[in-house]
From TrEMBL:
It comes from marine sediment metagenome. PANTHER family: GLYCOSYLTRANSFERASE WBBK-RELATED (PTHR46401:SF2). The keyword Transferase applies. Keywords: Transferase. GO terms for molecular function: glycosyltransferase activity. InterPro entries: Glyco_trans_1. Residues 4-132 form the Glycosyl transferase family domain. The keyword Magnesium does not apply. This is Glycosyl transferase family 1 domain-containing protein.
């Protein structure tokens, strides 16, 4: 955040999700230093899309493994471009529909953030292409594929 702030002084950071004990202590320190950092804490599931669509960028920056990677897909479906760590699950799922940064590379992360915030064309193209891609993961699409596979597995005629 500090690196990006030097290039884009009016940048804000919104952090959602319940922090663990150590991060909660860190957040308290940040609150005193950075007035443009907003810690939302736990967000009810029905409010999450609102926050996704408000943001200029969704950032998920895990340095270890993740599960399926549903959260970036949710952000994309809300029209928000995604920057995420280049861990395997994100690269496999998101392919070229997000920007990737190696874990524990804050200068590269700051560069991707400032690039995306300053380049409207890149941001719009990323969102447009990603939203077409994310339709593959809608409940109806996944449900139809799953039903087709079950029928095939059961050797049931179409």
């Amino acid at each position: 955040y500090r690196i990006v702030k030097t290039e884009i002084p009016n940048v804000n950071l919104v952090i959602g999700g319940k922090p663990d004990y150590l991060m909660e202590k860190e957040y308290k320190n940040w609150r005193e230093i950075y007035k443009e950092v907003f810690f939302m804490g736990y967000l009810p599931e029905d409010e999450v899309p609102y926050y996704f669509s408000m943001g200029d960028i969704f950032l998920t920056y895990s340095s270890s493994s993740e599960g399926f990677g549903l959260t970036p897909l949710e952000a994309i479906s809300c029209g928000t471009p995604v920057i995420c760590s280049s861990i395997l699950v994100y690269r496999e799922i998101l392919k070229n529909h997000a920007l990737f940064v190696p874990p524990k590379a804050p200068l590269k992360l700051a560069d991707k953030i400032t690039t995306l915030l300053n380049d409207n064309e890149l941001r719009n193209n990323l969102v447009e292409n990603a939203q077409k891609f994310v339709k593959k993961y809608s409940w109806s699409t996944v449900g139809k594929r799953l039903e087709k596979e079950y029928m095939r597995f059961l050797n049931y005629p179409n």
